[in-house]
Write the structure tokens for this entry.
Amino acid sequence: MRPVRIVLWSRGVDRLTDVVGGSARRRVVLLLAAVLSLQSADEDSEVRRKARQRLDIDPRPALVLNRDPLEMSSWAASTYVLRIPSNLVLIAASVLGYFFLAGLRSFAVLFAESHYQISQAAVSLVFIPVGVGAALGTLVGGRLVDRLIRGGKIDARITVSAVAFFGAAVLFLPGLLSAVLLVSIPLYALAAACLTAPNPALDAARLDVVPSRLWGRGEAVRTFSELVLEAFAPLIFGYVSVQFGGPGANLAPAVGVKAAAPVSAAQGRGLEYTFIVMLVPLLAAGLLLLVSRRQYLRDVATADVSDRVLCKMAAHSVEAEQADRSAATSPADKNALAGPQAASGDPRGDYG
């Protein structure tokens, strides 16, 4: 919400200053800048505020921005975003989580049909509680992280996400091994909740470690990386499945082509082994996050310092621009702007 308000404020300043001009322009700019500063202070990240109060968290001097990100090329901005250590870890953890999810979407129906010996219609019913668990995981995960941060746990976004990835792997394992559907369904629902719980926390954590003026390009880099790597998930799942004797990618048959034969019991076991092996990326995501907690706090402090430096640079730029405009205005121009009432000595000219 904060970036949207900044854009709206800046557009309002442009329109107002185009109308008023002169010394009133300076008053309008300074007034709206003060209001915007108050808005920004009220909406400042709680994680950044708490990290600022910690004396044991040092920013990275080499990553503090000292130039306007809007003047950076796309390559320079992308390179800077990828130089942030914890941002790389956050992107990698998200990719590993979505990697498992992409493979699950591709092979879940085949696995359920062969492992539990049920029809495709019954599989659709099984997905309902799993989907509910995934939705609840997102909501509960976000609220839990916010509560822990308010309580002083400023690395809660990283810690909760790591524990959730570990929990997803631990809960998926007995569900995959069990041949009783009624036992597996609640395990899958809880595992889905753990799998989606890190999403809001990781998204917010990425904004914590990237200067606010690079949020858009930072998210573009993250989205591109995730889409490229997730595209290989079904292929890798299919390859591993074939190595264990399971089916390949679950691609829909073309028009006029006979549908594939039902999955055999041996292929079902191959899929089961594949899903068990592919739990390793979830454990890797949790481990990456746990070991990066200290790096995350340093990058939060660095982004906070960068934003404060950029705010001071912007304020100095506005002051310099206003001073240049005032110096460039000649006395004759000032008298012309004052109007005929000021020249005649009418005291109402100051308010006209």
Notes: The chain has two domains: 2-68+309-351, 79-251+262-301.
